[in-house]
Design brief:
The structure is a single chain. This protein is an all-alpha fold. It is 78% helix and 0% strand. It has a single domain, classed as MFS general substrate transporter like domains (Growth Hormone, Chain: A, Up-down Bundle), CATH 1.20.1250.20. It has 14 helices and no strands. Helix 4 crosses helix 6, helix 6 (148-201) packs across helix 12 and helix 10 (279-312) crosses helix 12.
């Protein structure tokens, strides 16, 4: 038995693309809050800046789902030989490269025009992220995978792999060549990532006739969607989400994302302001944490896959229930870890912060993987997919036509967009809320309040769910 969790080819290639994208971005992004404060921004303005990055991701994700339909009708089976999610994911990666160029050319933030240019680049980064993440999720959701919770576990750990290496490499480039050097290196990484993403991920989709012959596990190719079909699809998707069995775990997951926004905006600043850590010590902490979290993440991914197997062996298998339990348990772990972190602020040291953040990251990983797995099976695959025993059984029993009307479902493009909306919207609102209350709460009470909120939401909505 392999010590590593199982990973299918499409999961591997999507995770590698995510890793390379985050590696190029995190070469410099770890210093972003410090950079903003050094440029004269207040703490609330730091939170609002993150809103400009994450909100466009949420707003543009549905449009990306629409474009995946429109472009797919022209590219599938054409001379490009690929399917639209890989095309738009590649464009999103190139957008990160354009953002890096913008950071090289940005003027000092000392007037209205320069501030406007700076905010424009943040919005562009958000749009680029929407293109990549909505498309990458659509690729995973439309593929025949044994465990979607495990697949998304791989996908969501990619940033940890990047953080284990990128900040140290970025610091070396900044030391040798200043920020221009690290931006140029990041641009080179993003160009390579775009090439890898397009050449590898487009191979994971077959032409319509091939997909019909293979049948299941693969979502049937559907005709190009119109504006009316676009609206109709999302209406049906939101009807599914509002169901009593689905909405409660989604709310728990969203509360975890709100808390992530608190930490995204103010964790690094807390280390610098309250604990008086230097930038070098913060860099060392991030690198050590990410490096040590790698083996832990592999254990979590393996755990997520084993849950799926155990559930199938039960007398009444329901893959949805596995995802729902993951979301609830992960939410509790995340909330309790944040409460503990805030309560221990007066006695925190390097190692205690490391241990508590392991708990918070483990909880977030389990919750996010469970949410994506749940959305995949309910929306991207259809409700009946939750009770299918394996991809091989799908291949045996299911033989769809070459095309389906849009109203017939399933909805992998829409599912990828919806799942993409939750993450940035939750983080953006969390950053906005924390920016508004940090002034009178302070760091300690902010983290405690966030943790209490997550735990409370989990305990309340659990009464309305069947897990």
């Amino acid at each position: 038995m392999s010590i590593f969790p199982k990973i299918e080819k499409v999961t591997r290639d999507t995770t590698i693309s995510h890793f390379l994208l985050m590696f190029g971005y995190k070469l410099f992004s770890i210093y972003f809050p410090l950079f903003l404060v050094a440029r004269g921004m207040s703490l609330p303005e730091v939170g609002y800046t993150y809103l400009l990055i994450y909100l466009p991701i949420a707003l543009f994700a549905p449009l990306v789902g629409f474009l995946n339909h429109k472009i797919g009708a022209h590219f599938v089976g054409g001379r490009w030989g690929g399917r639209s999610p890989a095309v738009l994911a590649t464009i999103g990666i190139l957008g990160y490269g354009v953002y890096v160029l913008g950071m090289i050319l940005i003027p000092p933030l000392d007037n209205f025009i320069s501030n406007g240019v700076f905010y424009f680049w943040q919005v562009l980064l958000g749009i680029s992220a929407a293109l990549f993440f909505a498309s990458a999720r659509a690729i995973l959701m439309s593929s025949p995978l044994e465990s979607y919770d495990r697949a998304f576990g791989w996908f969501y750990t990619a940033p940890f792999y990047a953080e284990a290496l990128a900040p140290a490499v970025g610091a070396l480039f900044i030391w040798k060549f200043n920020f221009v050097g690290v931006f140029i290196f990041s641009l080179v990484v993003q160009i390579f990532t775009a090439i890898f993403c397009f050449t590898q991920l487009k191979q994971n989709f077959q032409k319509p006739s091939t997909r019909a012959k293979l049948g299941a596990g693969l979502v049937p190719y559907r005709n190009e969607v119109s504006g009316a079909g676009f609206q109709e699809n999302y209406q049906k998707v939101f009807q599914k989400i509002k169901g009593r069995d689905i909405l409660p775990p989604i709310l728990i997951s969203f509360s975890v994302l709100l808390l992530a926004g608190f930490y995204q905006a103010f964790f690094v600043l807390f280390l610098e302001d309250s604990l008086l850590w230097s930038q070098n010590l913060i860099l060392i902490f991030v690198s050590i944490f990410s490096f040590l979290f790698l083996p832990i993440s592999l254990l979590i991914i393996k755990y997520l896959g084993r849950l799926r197997v155990d559930e199938l062996r039960s007398s009444s298998p329901s893959l949805r229930s596995v995802s729902e339990k993951n979301i609830f348990q992960g939410g509790l772990i995340t909330g309790i870890s944040s409460i503990l972190f805030g309560a221990l602020v007066p006695v925190l040291n390097f190692f205690s912060i490391l241990l508590i953040n392991f708990g918070r990251s483990i909880g977030s990983l389990i919750t996010n993987s469970g949410r994506s797995g749940l959305i995949t099976r309910v929306i991207a695959k259809g409700e009946d997919e939750t009770l299918v025993s394996s991809p091989s059984q799908k291949l045996k029993d299911y033989n769809p036509p070459a095309t389906l009307p849009l109203s017939a479902g399933p909805y992998p493009e829409e599912a990828g967009a919806i799942d993409t909306i939750f993450s940035p919207l939750g983080v953006a609102l969390g950053a906005l809320i924390s920016g508004a209350i940090i002034g009178f709460l302070g760091y300690q009470l902010l983290f405690i309040f966030g943790g209490i909120f997550v735990v409370t939401v989990g305990l309340i909505v659990k009464k309305f769910a069947k897990f």
